[in-house]
Amino acid sequence: MPGRIFAARFSPDGSRAIFGSSSDGKGEVHVYETATGKLVSTLQGIQGPIYAVAHHPKEKVVASAGFDGIVYLHNPDNGTLIRQFVAVPLTTTKTAAQ
What we know:
Elements: E1 4-10, E2 16-23, E3 26-33, E4 39-42, E5 50-55, E6 62-66, E7 70-74, E8 81-86
Antiparallel strand pairs: 1-2, 2-3, 3-4, 5-6, 6-7, 7-8
């Protein structure tokens, strides 16, 4: 994984660990088996730095999000992107000097 790990979570049953990292404006999320340390998948389609990850409590879905405001939903078994969306649109704010 490039850069530093900014987010780590376990799957609900503890069998997997999900790690999100960022370096030089790029992010990656990897899913590992906790018993063996084997890489299960690298989540596809991530465009920017990742700072948060979560595993759905009942479904096979991993969520990740980062600096660009995009939330990615992936299948943790194979890394396939299920969907992406902007949870909170990022806008510029006018300052008092403007």
